[in-house]
Structure formats: C-alpha cells, structure tokens
Design goal:
By secondary structure, the chain is of the alpha/beta class. It has a single domain, classed as Alpha/Beta hydrolase fold, catalytic domain (Rossmann fold), CATH 3.40.50. It has five helices and seven strands, in the order βαβαβαββαβαβ. Strands 2-1-3-4-5-6-7 form a seven-stranded parallel β-sheet, sandwiched between helices. The chain is globular and about 40 Å long. About 5% of the residues have low confidence.
Length: about 210
C-alpha cells in the first residue's frame, strides 16, 4: 500500500482515564508515524453514545483506511461503534487490535463500565484480534476468549501481564507490535484479493481462532 491515501492510519482508542505516558499506546505514538489518538473526552465518566460518536467522528475525519488499536473499555467502544454504525468492510475501518477488553456484563470491577453493558454480540465486519491476559483483574481469561468468539476475532494469549496497561511495565510491548503486524498483513492480503474493498463475510466467523504464537 504505497499510496499514502491507502496506507491505514492507526487510531489508538484508550480506555478509562485515558492512557498515560508509560502506557504502550503512548509509547507507540511517540515512536512511530501514522499513529494518532482518539480524544473520547469524559475519560473519567464515560458515556457509551458519547464515546461512540467521538470515535465515529475520528474515523470519518481520517480520510483514509483506519486500523483501530483499542485498550480496555476502548474495545467495547469499538464493538458498539460497529454495532451502531453497521459499516461495510473498508468504510473506512479495515481492522482492529482489541487489547484487554474488561468484563462489563458479570459484576464489572468498576461501576463506570456498566454504561457499556451489555457487550455487543455481533461479529465485527473487519479482521480483528482480541488479546487477553491470564491475570487481568478486570476480566477472567475465558471471558476474554468468549468475547473473541462473539466478535469473530482471532484470539491471542498475552501471558501473565495484568491488564496490559502502564502498570504491566511493557514499554514498547513487542508482542503487541507483532500482533499489529499480523493484522496489517491480513489487511494487505485482503486488499490484494479485492481491488475494491468488499464486505468481509461474517457467516461462520463467530468461532475465534487462537493465534499460534
């Protein structure tokens, strides 16, 4: 994708309280081009429709294909955006990396998460990877895998790294960069297969696929 108009813009979608300077999302923004952050506002008191509207505006303003890189509650904002907007593949989101989505249905750890309940259950209309940690205090590992199944996402095991946030001490988080490269590779293969972006069939995509990593 040598044409800059076709090179995806990577949009970081943080979760509750935004991502501070030590968060891997912030580190990526400081070290790489073509990465921007969605200003969802109301970081401390999130409103589902407000976040979805802000995300939708950022996506539409990109003026080119978009890959969403979401963390925590930002993952649910992405899922709700897809459920509400019902976009076709490539219009303009071509993929999503969804890291550490928290539990919002069964006794969420933070009451502020309830505003996004229930979790959307429809498969996403673009390639996606859900990443979960075995010792994430915000969700049980098998529940993270279940979200991947609902969303038709590939599933990646991050090991034992907590909520995959600044407190996890991941720095540039090389594993996350590896997953992003895999996602970009999938997007490039789809673009090669379809000269004009076509909807990605969702029938049969509800079962998640574990990444062999």
């Amino acid at each position: 994708m040598s044409d800059s108009r076709r090179t995806p813009l990577i949009l970081n979608v943080p979760g509750l309280e935004n991502s501070g300077p030590a968060h891997w999302q912030s580190v990526w923004e400081s070290e790489y081009d073509d990465i921007a952050r969605v200003d969802l506002e109301s970081w401390d008191r999130p409103h589902r429709n407000g976040w979805v509207n802000k995300l939708n505006l950022a996506i539409r303003d990109a003026g080119r294909p978009v890959i969403l890189v979401a963390h925590s509650l930002g993952c649910h904002a992405v899922a709700w955006w897809a459920a509400m907007e019902r976009p076709a593949y490539g219009d303009p989101v071509v993929g999503a990396l969804l890291v550490a989505p928290p539990e919002i249905d069964l006794a969420p750890m933070d009451d502020r998460l309830k505003a996004f309940s229930p979790s959307p259950k429809a498969p996403l209309p673009f390639p996606s990877i859900v990443v979960a940690s075995h010792d994430d205090p915000y969700i049980q590992f098998h529940r993270g895998r279940r979200l991947a199944q609902f969303w038709g996402s590939r599933f990646a095991d991050a090991g034992h790294v907590g909520h995959i946030n600044a407190q996890s001490g991941l720095g540039t988080w090389s594993f996350g960069q590896f997953l992003l490269r895999k996602l970009i590779g999938t997007v490039e293969r789809l673009e090669t297969a379809h000269a004009d972006p076509q909807p990605v069939p969702v029938e049969g995509r509800r079962r998640s696929i574990d990444l062999g990593v």
